[in-house]
Design goal:
Endonuclease III, domain 1, single chain, about 45% helix, five-stranded antiparallel sheet, two-stranded antiparallel sheet, TATA-Binding Protein, alpha+beta
Length: about 300
């Protein structure tokens, strides 16, 4: 193990809260918590893999993240590793205006206050975010995690360390080479499996430039995703949220958000119509998207138990 870099995120940055959040995933896939640290396999542009271990200080107002390369294979370069982990664990969240808005709304503040400083993970690529979001369409969150776990294990981009296996997300070329029959264990519709393969083929051939969305405005990125056949509002909004942290939209047709909005902001139980979700968050103006995101985070903390993580 060798030290790669030390990162100093903008406070408040509650790394411990992030680890707590990640232990709520029933089937962890890429973002692993072990021995009070965050573990992630990063793929370099040259194709090599590196397993990074990130350990953080408990000082929310003076955070520090120590990043180490545990093991690697193939051609990797330190600069690309640093840039990728800085993207995945964004260091410059500025939620001060949102927190001030929430503090003036008693119901929203009850949702937000326990989550102050929670880092919001990003995917390492737009392709990763899009494929994972397509898998999650119209199935439960836990079932989707299980499917995503199967996919990374099936492709097998992995590194082994201390009797544990850590995975990187499949490349576009690897998914493009799959058939619908290959992907049947995902237990999603044939239509969505075919969409995954088609999008991967377009990315691999250069016909579809998903990473180019980094260079355009959030509105333009959303427009380009919505122009893809098979991509609707929820998929586009969630993909851009995961890839870049954009909060310009409310995923009003998300069934979990419908239930969480009712529980925390309306005092009810069960799902509410998408129109009521939109109307509920509209009162927060420019902060509507973040308010919705934090409402989902709160649901995860309260509805999903922690897993026991080993050494």
């Amino acid at each position: 193990m060798r030290h790669l870099t030390t990162l100093h995120p903008k406070p408040p940055y509650n790394f411990g809260l992030l680890l707590d959040f990640l232990t709520r995933f029933a089937h962890p896939t890429l973002n692993i918590v072990r021995a009070s640290a965050y573990w992630r396999v990063v793929q370099s542009p040259a194709g090599g893999l590196a397993l990074l271990r990130v350990a953080g200080s408990s000082a929310v107002d003076n955070p520090q993240l120590d990043v180490n390369v545990v093991t690697s294979s193939g051609d990797v370069d330190d600069q690309s590793l640093v840039e990728t982990i800085k993207h995945i664990l964004p260091l410059q969240h500025d939620r001060s205006a949102f927190y001030a808005c929430a503090a003036n709304e008693s119901d929203l503040w009850m949702v937000v206050e326990p989550l102050i400083g929670l880092p919001e993970l990003r995917s390492s690529s737009v392709f990763e975010a899009l494929i994972e979001t397509i898998i999650e369409q119209q199935i439960s969150w836990v079932t989707a995690q299980k499917a995503q776990r199967w996919l990374v294990e099936w492709v097998g981009n992995m590194l082994e360390y201390d009797e544990h296996i850590y995975y990187a997300f499949p490349t576009a070329e690897q998914i493009a080479a799959a058939t619908v029959d290959d992907l049947k264990p995902l237990k999603i519709t044939f239509k969505r499996m075919a969409l995954m393969i088609d999008l991967a083929s377009q990315v691999a051939s250069g016909q579809l430039d998903l990473e180019g969305l980094r260079e355009v405005s959030p509105a333009e990125a959303y427009k380009r995703l919505m122009a893809i056949k098979g991509i609707g509002h929820w998929t586009a909004a969630v993909t851009l949220e995961r890839a870049f942290g954009y909060s310009d939209w409310v995923a009003h047709n998300d069934v979990v958000l419908q239930a969480a909005t009712n529980r925390y902001l309306l005092g009810g139980s069960g799902r509410i119509p998408p129109e009521l979700v939109t109307a509920t968050f509209a009162r927060y103006g420019d902060h509507a998207g973040l308010a919705a995101r934090y409402t989902m985070f709160r649901w995860v903390f309260e509805q999903y138990p922690q897993r026991i993580t080993g050494s």
